[in-house]
DNA sequence: TCAAAAGTGTTAAGGTTACACCCATGA
DNA sequence: TCATGGGTGTAACCTTAACACTTTTGA
């Protein structure tokens, strides 16, 4: 039987942690106009066989962001991406392995949110049935608290898109204004803005430059290819800028 | 001498963590029109004697936010506050105790940002020279990476104030529109907006209700006391709302 | 020559800014 | 009666939203 003294000591005892990084990786399939999120089928316990966000535990000497890039690189080959820290979920009993019968340490998750270019993202997997792009509307029940993390990431994506130039990290070097508009529509939903108003707002900002090159898409007038001019954008950095 | 095999094993070894919570606690002295941040003088190694953000290590069974509230309650008595998670700093070598000669585990910090009502915040300390409100412009070099955390929190505070009703968590139950304006001025700097425009914008939104009660401040016309009407605000929740 | 896709222009409604001005009180 | 702080009004300007219209192409 424990004395009161012992109970007090137990109460103020520090928790030991393993730290994991979970990535919410988004991509936009511009052909089918679908917003996708990358999911992994777990092959180990806990939650073996269930879909989850791609994650990993942080290794000795590894920075958190480094860990996020590592897991990303293990799952997909990609040239262009945007990545930022999302939120930290660290309450007790997130992970069954916390049980004293198991490892007896708490599992904290630092989540990151990424947007990658769909066209040049190659999935890496021994068997491709264990990794897939899921349309955001069709995501099933995920392992751990990953549905909550995903929801959080989705909200952040929509906000970021409205007042940051992250779209250009994920579009090809040159793109038509319609490509850009479609990307916004896919993520924010139709009728977030009229095309012609979107167009004039973006052009007025002055950091999209017309390359002069035209590209034809079946019938209809050919579209100009534009380029994002990072230098012309510089003055807007850290300023509240609205794209929609 | 290590074999290549051993090196590889070491490389993929998981890190063990202690998790700390560090709070960036802001307050506004409306008398002197100063934005203040709560700092603690450390009395233990490492960085003994240096100023730091109030922080603590997470205990067994304790949620992160719970930990943030605990350290806050240990340092100040306060009735009204706003608190949210800020960012997680978890790179290697943030803390000298990570050294193998010391505890040999990594110290990760989940930071929280809080805004408290200055008037009813009583500092708790055995000796008051070890805890103090610092004007934001005069903050010295802090322990660990706390200056970086503070800077991050300061940016978040300014953003939050512009499009969230956090000011009302920190104002008295009833307040004059000038009190509100002064709060905004102190945090965002003068000339963020004309008083009369600020006034009409806020009143048009319709969630500030005039109590009819007047209060006099020396010479001059008495001001109406207003109350924040949380119910009338409800429809604006989760909508992008701009106060400035 | 017609439909499709790209791109331009117009207009009404509403918001923002920078003020000038009126009101109520204490000294 | 005047200085002080509170409160109202307004005209010029800018932004937004909706939609009509022109241009350039392939079939």
Automatic annotation (TrEMBL), chains A, B:
Keywords carried by this UniProt record: Hydrolase
GO MF, one example: hydrolase activity
Keyword Hydrolase applies: yes
Keyword Transcription listed: no
SUPFAM superfamilies: Nudix, Winged helix' DNA-binding domain
All residue ranges annotated as the Nudix hydrolase domain in the record: 16-157
InterPro entries attached to this UniProt entry: AraR_wHTH_dom, NUDIX_hydrolase-like_dom_sf, NUDIX_hydrolase_dom, WH-like_DNA-bd_sf, WH_DNA-bd_sf
Domain of life: Bacteria
PANTHER family: ADP-RIBOSE PYROPHOSPHATASE, SLR1690 PROTEIN
Protein's name in the database: NUDIX hydrolase
